[in-house]
Specification:
The complex is a heterodimer. Chain A starts with 5 loop residues before the first helix and ends with a helix. Chain A has one domain. In chain A, strand 2 and strand 3 form a beta hairpin. In chain A, helix 6 runs antiparallel to helix 7. Chain A has a three-stranded antiparallel sheet, with helices on one face. By secondary structure, chain A is mainly α. Chain B is α+β, with helices and mostly antiparallel strands. Chain B folds into two domains: about 190 residues, Penicillin-binding protein 2a (Domain 2) (Alpha-Beta Complex); about 290 residues, DD-peptidase/beta-lactamase superfamily (Beta-lactamase, 3-Layer(aba) Sandwich), CATH 3.40.710. Helices cover about 35% and strands about 20% of the residues of chain B. Chain B is built from 22 helices and 23 strands. In chain B, strands 2, 3, 4, 5, 10, 18 and 19 form a seven-stranded mixed sheet that branches. In chain B, strands 12-11-23-22-21 form a five-stranded antiparallel sheet, sandwiched between helices. The termini of chain B are far apart. Chains A and B meet through helix 11, helix 13 and helix 14 of A and helix 1, helix 2, strand 1, helix 7 and strand 8 of B.
Amino acid sequence: MKFDRRLVSNFDWFLLLITIIIATIGIFNIYSATFAGKEPGGMPIYLKQVCWIVVGIFVMFLSFCVDYRLLERFAYPLFTVAVLLLILVIPFGKSVSGSRRWLELGGFSLQPSEFFKIAIIFILSKYFSKYPGYSLGAIRGLFIPFLMLALPVVLVLLQPDLGTALIIILIFLSLLLFNGIKMKNILIMSSVFLAGLPLFWHYLKSYQKMRILTFVNPDLDPLGSGYHIIQSKIAIGSGAFWGKGFLKGTQSQLLFLPEQHTDFVFSVFAEEWGFLGSLMVVSLYLLVVLWGFRIASHSREGFCAFLTFGIVSMFFWQIFINIGMSLGIIPVVGVPLPLMSYGGSSTISFLLGIGILINISTRRFLF
Amino acid sequence: MLLYDKDNKREFKKKLFFSIVFAIVAFTIILSRLWYLQILQGKKFKSLSENNRIRIVKIPAPRGIIFDRKGKALVDNYPSFDLSIIPEDVNDLESTIKKLSDLLNVTADLFKAKLKESRGNPPFKPIKVKTNLDYREVAILETNKLDLPGVTIEIAPKRLYIFDKLAAHLIGYTGKISESQLKTRVSDGYSMVDLIGKYGIEHDYETVLRGSNGGAQVEVDAVGRKVRVLRELEPTPGENIFLTIELDIQKLAEKALADMIGTVIVMDPNTGDILALASSPSFNPNMFSLGISSKEWECLVSNPNNPLANKAIQGQYPPGSVYKIITAIAGLEEKVITPETVFYCDGSYRFGRRAYRCWQRKGHGRVNLHRALVESCDVYFYQVGQRLGVDRIAYYSSLFGLGKPTGISRTNEKHGLIPTSLWKLEALKSPWQESETLSMAIGQGFVLVTPLQILNLISSMANGGILYRPQIVKKITSPGGDIIKEFFPEKMKKIPVSDNSINLIKDALWGVVNERLGTGWRARIEGADVAGKTGTAQVVGLPKDSSNEYVPFEHRDHAWFSAFAPKDKSKVAIVVLLEHGGHGGNKAAQIARDILKGSLKILNDDNSSF
């Protein structure tokens, strides 16, 4: 392959820079979040996160190297593999505190549902770019995309992983709306949704029902999620304007917060860095989202526009739900905060997403 | 779709614009919430966090009570005073530990070990350092309370097995949850300090007995004392279990078994209810609920007589002559013999190049089926077995449930073994020998059964051919006493064997106990019409003329006696197995007699009192 100098001159350094800043903040924050409850022996968690980021950057680079016009060809194989992995999790998955989400692969744990998010963005982008929404009836416009969604979501709910299932559904809806949809189809969809709601409720695990009920009324579960919400709010609020300083957050260092380095990682940060720090991180995230939309708006090809939009919506929903949960404005659902929460699979798939964005952003000038 | 189309392009830009607006609104919500929590409410939260004294205090649920069938409590709870340390509230850990060890007269190492175990816990979490304080200790600690910040006494329900070893194998025990159990059950709300049923009913009915823990969000002051309760969740006590066990009969069985090695099971043949189940040697479940020391555990595990095994369902033994019931029924049903068929016994039976001995060295002479069972003639059954062949005997064994678990317990019940020609070919890679059929016909060789399976067999004789599933739980009630679930007799099947055959066998079993030369005469009870069968299971082949007194204990035969009474309209069935107990007609029959006599009296008293 002949090297094109324009790949360097047009490279989207800006997005790469923001990504690296967020990931770095993430590492320091995980260091702080795991400082107190450290288990002796083994590699410290923050170092593991460094490894994941290095691997992720490598994956990001790989995804950058592929000509984005070829990416479309990956849609179906990628989707098939991702669904197969989700099926494999059911019998072979590693069970951690009551849910089976991980596949054990020679010492590493892979969480297929994280990668599935990228896969469903690919396949929906391919499908929608062929069939623009306004012209479509219920079958093509809703039914077929819905089939692509249904099986994987059921598989993820079986694990059970309510948070990831929710994110997948939100990505789906975002892309569906972005493709455009007839009023009639919206009505069909909402009535199916309303009809399915009681059934869905029936199949929720009791702790998941409890979380939703607890959000409505925290008094219901004063020892579980009700307690978590209160401690998270105390942590964030007590950070005040300036924050308590690195490693000085009492809530996190005394382990009052649950899941400090994963789901409630933002609370740790907000406590130690205050409103000032939080404002900065939230702004960085907003920049990623807006920059993503800018890339989408410059796309000249349907598939790329959808792909970009899908990845951006994935970022957006995860950020909004995770932070919203920490702030007590959304029920407690386990969703990782991009590049801040500890986790190999999620970190790698976020960096893969960024790689694709940079790829599209850089190459749009080439053709 | 290429985006060169102008309409498309405009549409696309419009949607992107809405998306951007949507995202900005969402982020604005987040920022305003941050503003509200950190700037407007910052002061309030800051002071809340500075003395974050909101604690979760667990209120453990009392475990369900276990009763006997008449409602006498066998297992209950009692309040135990436990000493805990909350590291965060302690000023000086070293001196606190020193003070505690002086006050309670315990070495400081004990406390240090407990604290070490809980390293990595959040510092506000109480660490239990001593359980079951007595009243004197509680009083001492209460008077010194002010000098001991961060030290608390909590009251927690503890498990009490009222009759110590009684029915220990059936009831089981509870213990601290293990790490591997915790991993799989954390989503059910278990935590490191919880107790969990580990054996027997306590294990099998864990979800029923457990209840759900309550707790409270409590605000405490700087030294960890409760200031006020913010929110509270009452614990829900576990549900109560009524066993089918009859306490008085169980006591009889335990007493009769005393320090012998073996098992006794008593059953109501009309329902399958287990009235008593004792296995010896036994253990005291109270040791586990107070936290068993590793020395005590070592002692239990290394005992060669295996006190932790429930011999009634986990012991597998050759059935010996008790098995002749099967051979006899198979012979009658397959019409290879009639009740009048006569074989001649001169003390041994020649097959191939070997003489197969009868236990009665001088021989029984001419015997028919009735006499063969009454006097337990081996030679008679060698020939019946030979006519039947291994697979037909195996078929009739399986009809009576031998060789498979009865389903009484959810865990650990052994299968036993009923050999077939196919089994031998697969397991041992060699064809079945006809000589092995001879051994099988008298319950030796490969045949293995559990005592409970034999009890099932004798019960189905008593009730005329019905196989019930043995039951140990009668009902489950709520803490308030309402019935939540009731267990009714479960007929597994009507055994497809003619009434005529069963009646012939029953008559013979009556003869075993009540006729002049019956091997089970020691079980005779005046006016009770006991019917039963003795069995003597060889452990090793013994040389001729060796009587048991001169044989090392572990080489002596296992003794079986299984019986029911009265012969018609039976009320109770029993099996006794004594490991190395010698001949089944001796000690085993005596024990069965004592328990049968007592049980019949208890059951009759019950009936007359209603």
